[in-house]
Amino acid sequence: MTVMLPHPRKIPPSRDKNLPVHLQKIMKKLREADRDNNGSFNKSELKHALKDLGAYFPGWRADRAFGKIDVNNDGLISGEEIDSLLEYLGSCGFGK
C-alpha cells in the first residue's frame, strides 16, 4: 500500500514583502537553492543556500538547522518549518 504525503506548502514570492529585509534576503537564497522547485528544502539545498549566505561551515550549520527545525524528521524543511528556519537563520545573523 502506497501512502501519499501531502505536497509541501509553497511560499509565494508575494509573501516576502511582509518579511523584514534580512529575512527576504535569506528567503531569496533559499528559493535559488531549491533545485527541484518543490517549495521544501533538503539538507543539500540548505547547505547550498547557507554557503551563498556566507556561512563558514555550511554543512555543520545545515546539520544543526535540521536538528532544530525538522520536527517531523522527514528529511525536508517544509510548510511551517520554513517559518522556523527563517527565524533561526535570522537569529544566527544571516541576511544582514
Automatic annotation (TrEMBL):
GO molecular function: calcium ion binding
Keywords carried by this UniProt record: Calcium
PROSITE patterns (alphabetical): EF_HAND_1, EF_HAND_2
UniProt-listed Pfam families: EF-hand_7
Domain EF-hand: start-end pairs: 21-56, 61-92
Name of the protein described by the UniProt record: EF-hand domain-containing protein
